Each structure stands twice: as structure tokens, then as C-alpha cells.
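STRUCTURE REQUEST FORM
Protein name: M20 family metallopeptidase
Source organism: Kribbella alba
Requested output: C-alpha cells
Priority: standard
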Amino acid sequence: MADPGLLLGLRQLEDSMLAVLEDLVMTETPSDDLRLLRNGTRLLSGLVNRLLGEAPETVEVDGRSHLRLRGSGDRPVLVVCHLDTVWPAGTTGRWPFAVADGRATGPGVFDMKAGLVQALYAISALSRTDGVTLLVTTDEEIGSPTGRALVEDEARRSRAVLVPEPSAAGALKTARKGISMYRLHVQGRAAHAGLEPERGVNALVELARQVPRIADLGDARLGTTVTPTTATAGSSRNTVPATAEAAIDVRAATVAEQERVHAELADLAPGTDGAVLRLEGGINRPPFEPDASAGLMTLAERFADELGLAPLRQASVGGGSDGNFTAALGVPTLDGIGAVGDHAHAEGEYSLTAPMSERAALLCALIDHLTEDKP
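Status: completed
Returned output:
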């Protein structure tokens, strides 16, 4: 049974939560700026120490800092957050943190700094914290190249994973598509476009042949999307393009579909004499399939009811998170338990202020139940 005083206590801390959120938002942490990320992890380390009574460990991987406060208990609950955002340095100069009409706005407020604040206050409300591990990575928005191993290592020693990623319109994420990222390179041969174009091998023409084939690899019936996105070609207006390339975004709901598309992309063959294809990239995040979240979602619905919250909704989405990695390992994982708001990665993203204490209470109740080995 969720403690009826839990939500009331957290609601009384709303001003404190918003002050911490302002500090985090105004300390910019773009994924590609290691200096600013170090500033952010220093700030966050101090906040963790103040709120949870213990300084987190800084884990350096290839010059990038991540934070970890590891629980000492057997098979702890893992709470996975990320500090990095998609917003470039200087964004707060034109768009600072603000609160008005029940909405907090600012770059990264929704994805996912408000969820991170909620996680800190949820853990601080526990009677004991030795049964929970907090992991905050700094490269989730760019595919977790250094954070993935940390997330997976901690998940393997954990009984469950809770991910306070944002929840559009409040829906928890119980499934996510897997993500694959590719770049197709075409090598042709340059020639003067006016004098002797026949001596060239037009890489752009070959790429144009390939793009419809690539797009046709999607399967709407199964929710598989294969989307050519950005493309470049050539070196000058009057030269037959010797090179061309295109980026390809793949989303699939199952491992089988992800692997099918991978195999078919790898099997592409040129249709222009003399052209050569080279495919780079591959599977980045495996699918987060619904079985991984079912039990935890049932618990969350129960605790939401006991806390007097509105009935929870759930959603399957195309965007990925570090929860994809933990779910693929077979560790029970519930995602999207963070901020309630909208417009992630877009101008005007916002987090509703009233649900911050509610989601913190829900997260706290889940951790408390899971760490006590209750049936």
C-alpha cells in the first residue's frame, strides 16, 4: 500500500523542485560539448549529495563523464536518467527557464531534466536508499556510445529498471521501437558535365536509384519504417558527381524486423555500371518489446490508484531510450515515468509543474515496493 502521506509531502516540496530544475536547465548540457557536460555533472553531483546525502561516483569513458550512485543492497532497482540535451550552447540566452500558467519551459526541461529532478526527490523520499542505484548518462541523445555499457552493466545486476524519460500527455512508455542508423555511400567517377559527361559515373543518379528501393523496405503493417533522411552529392555544378551519400533511419518493433532490414540494406547492389556502394552503420538500439514492462505497468497502475492519481495510460512509441537496452537484456523495465508535458526536442518544450510531485511519488512507491521484495 502506497503511503498516503507521500504525495502530500512531495507536493510541499514543489518550489524546491522547481528551483533545482531551473539550475539544471540554465546549466546547458548539449551532448556534443564535453566542457559544458562536465559543468553539468559537477552541478548535478552537488545536488545529489545535498538531496540524497551522498556524492555520486563520476565515471569517465573516453573523456565523457557519467554519474553513478550505486545501491549497496542485493539486486537493487536501477533508475536510469540522462543529463544531455539536443539544444546547442547559448540557447538559454534567448530562451531561459521560466514558469508560467503551470508550465515550466526551457531547453531540455521536458527531455529530460524535469524527470531527473523527479527521480532525485523520489529517492530522497525513501526511508532507505541502499536498494536503489541512480545512473545518469551524458550521451543518450546521440545513441549512448559510451553510456550503453554502463547502463547494461548496471541492469544486469538489478531486479528492475525505471526510466524517468518524458511522457507526452502523461502516457507511460511500455514499448519502444528499435533504432538502426545507416549511411549509404556511392562511389562514381568525375567528368566534365559539359564536355564529356559520358566518361563519368554519376554517383547522384545511382543514389537516386537506390532511394526508392530503400524506402520500400519499410512495412507499415508491422510498424517498420525505413526513411532516407539527409543526402549530399557532387563537388561542383558542372562536374559529374563522383560521390554521393544518404543517411537512413530505421525503426522496427521486433528484433526480427530490425534484422531483416539490416540484411536487405547490406545486400543492396548498384544499378549503374562502374558505381560502388558502401554501407556504414547498423543497429543502435534493440526494440523494447511489451513483455518487459507488463508487470511493472500493473504495479504502477495500482500505486497510482492508491495515491489518488488519475488512471495511467500507456503507449508504444517510435523513439528510443536507454530503456531499450535494459529491456532487451530481459530485465523488467518501465519507461516514460518522468515529466508530463510535450514538444520534446522542439521550440517551446514544456513540463507541467503540478504532476512533478505526483510522478515523484509514483516513482518512490514503485522503488519502495520493489526493494522490499513485496509480492
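Reviewer notes: The chain is about 35% helix and 25% strand. The chain has a mean pLDDT of 96.
Form closed.
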